[in-house]
Amino acid sequence: MSSLTSGVYPPPLSSPEQTHLITTIKDWTIANGLTIRPPPNPKADPNAVTAVSAPVTLFPSPFPRVCFEQGRVVQQSYNELYAAVSRDEKFIEDMVNEVKDGDDFIGQLWNIHLKVKEEGYTQPLSLGLFRSDYMVHQDCTSEPPTLQAKQVEFNTIASSFGGLSQQTSGLHKFLANTEYPLLEKNISSILLDLPENKTTQGLAAGIQAAYTAYGDSELGHPRCVVFLTQDGERNVFDQRHLEYQVLQAKPAIPVFRLPFSEVLQHTSIADTPKRQLLYKLPRNPDKVYEVAVIYLRAGYGPGDYPDSKGWEARLHLERSHAIRCPTVLTQLAGTKKVQQVLATPDLSVLAKYINNKTPAAQELWKTFTNIYPMDTSPSGLEARKKALDPQEAEKYVLKPQREGGGNNIYRGSIPSFLKTVPEEHWGSYILMELITPPPVTNTILRNGALEAGGVICELGVYGTCLWDQNSGKAKHNEQAGYLLRTKGDKSEEGGVAAGYGCMDSVALV
Ligand code: ADP
Ligand code: MG
Ligand code: MG
């Protein structure tokens, strides 16, 4: 353990120190795009360019080195695992059948796959920009107590905050070199072990690898990458960092942002056996690009499919020759139900995809925590009993098959929530043991105000993988940097964009 844990950290700040640090952080965040768009405000000038600082901690949070290393070391195995699950159509079908009665969204996604399968997929390559999320678990049953990274969830679609996380590491490094040593209770930069974080480059390298692997346009068009976006996206600068980095390739790769709601308007599918996806520049329809890679930062939740046009657009993309990041099958592989089945206690399911012969795979096995089905199997019935008992339920979180935060039901709210759901649909949820990390304190700067106190940190490790869906062969498999999100310890959810959490970086201890 370093002196970070023995001394007072983060140090108390005098009022002038606070004011100075706040000003410095505000300037740095705006100058370096550690920013989000503010919520819509009818009184604001509609022509104004608006950005506000993303909420951040004043100091990097202490984070156990063993858990950080564990997360990094297992990432390539996780990439492999999820590529393998995406290729196992039967496994995904079984999962869909378990949940689709209570979850129309998952059923609809599966239908897209079935339709394209009938016609025949023309693009064997599949791209994943993944993020595996963890919290620190303290095992007090071992002597001395050990710390373990336990997986919260695995994201296979729209894994966000890569751009902002690299900037947050940059902010804390900057403060460590300039401001922290000047504090009354100074922390010199040597005391802080701040690992390098090159998430933007890492994620861009995945997209660039897919672009290259796509090959030249047989139709003679210039090629491009399309970022599929949501209308009114506030986390736009996070996406921009990645976009500008992809463009940096030599030769440069054109990237266009396309709202999901406009896919059918601005793209078409070539009338060829390959079904190339063509993008017409809205401002100059004579300019036609062939889309090599389509990166989804939309389409992960029912809100993006308000009517049948949304599903038509998703089918249109899925049946095209563009490399999808992700495919429908990979999106389905990222459901909490799949995570629960993989976490089956004897780990026999996991063993089908990953042998535990390598040290990295052995570490991966250790990241699982207890997750139970809510179906009518013996363990499902046992889980139902726990979920309905107000006292027992305190140890759990109930999750539907949804992404993007704000969908879970926590602790004492579980029994009454379940009573509002028809029992035959309970199987579309999973019950997960709550991970309770050791206490950490820090101060969050949000909307110019400070919130000091106990915080809970969630580590995300990014991974990129490009594989052949037919052969399973991976053309690119990398670990791609990390994210640390921190929330007040009174809050259940950790979403930064949703306003619960904030950006942070690790100071390894
Ligand atoms: P989503 O896909 O919506 O992000 P998550 O499974 O990540 O869903 O849950 C959202 C948040 O809920 C997490 O960021 C975390 O703060 C909290 N959470 C989820 N699962 C657990 C758990 N097992 N223990 C503690 N907190 C959890
Ligand atoms: Mg998620
Ligand atoms: Mg999450």
Automatic annotation (TrEMBL):
Keywords: ATP-binding, Glutathione biosynthesis, Ligase, Magnesium, Metal-binding, Nucleotide-binding
Reactions accelerated catalytically: gamma-L-glutamyl-L-cysteine + glycine + ATP = glutathione + ADP + phosphate + H(+)
Matches recorded under InterPro entries: Glutathione_synthase, Glutathione_synthase_a-hlx, Glutathione_synthase_C_euk, Glutathione_synthase_N_euk, GSH-S_sub-bd_sf, GSH_synth_subst-bd, PreATP-grasp_dom_sf
Listed name of the protein: Glutathione synthetase
Molecular function terms, GO-annotated: ATP binding; glutathione binding; glutathione synthase activity; magnesium ion binding
PANTHER family: GLUTATHIONE SYNTHETASE
Family assignment from sequence similarity: Belongs to the eukaryotic GSH synthase family.
Self-association and partners: Homodimer.
Species: Emericellopsis atlantica
Superkingdom to which the source organism belongs: Eukaryota
Pathway of action: Sulfur metabolism; glutathione biosynthesis; glutathione from L-cysteine and L-glutamate: step 2/2
Signal peptide region: none
